[in-house]
Hints:
Strand 4 and strand 5 form a beta hairpin. The chain is elongated and about 75 Å long. Helix content is 26%, strand content 38%. The strands form two sheets. Strands 2-1-3-6-7-8 form a six-stranded mixed β-sheet, with helices on one face. A two-stranded antiparallel sheet has the order 4-5.
Amino acid sequence: MSIPTTAFLALALQSQAAAPAPAVAPGTIAVEVAEDASAFDRLFTDAVTRALSDARFVPLPLESHSRYIARVTVTRTESGAVTAKAKEPPAMAALGQVFVPLPSGKSQIRGLVSTDLSVDILLRGGDTPVWSGRASTVQVEGSAADAPAAVATKLASALMRQFPRRDPVSVP
């Protein structure tokens, strides 16, 4: 083989190796739900199913012959603590017949919870994801923003809004 032929083959092999993953066109999709899934896990799979529908996928039951399978993984971990305002009624001062609320200045330490949602989309019968996405949020434990339904909807929607990009999403 001559040197120019060798160089050409090397460039051809490099371009093949650097070729991007195939584009994922929306189509029929089934979302995997483990048989022993908790109610918490089911909230997330339901939210991902709705978000996939918004991204122009057609959700079908898992037993169907959908083109794609979506695998959903959710992890929640403690991520430290933060000072939050106490949920106590304010103190009141009486000035004649007028009651004035006084700032209590009280606060309490509340835990922070980090929630990560990962979605892998695979061709049915395949083991390698054709698309993967991840969204994360950190919320004050026990707050309205940390309610499982709110977190599931927020993360799933943010993740699928950026489809087909593969960048991780951080959700406030």
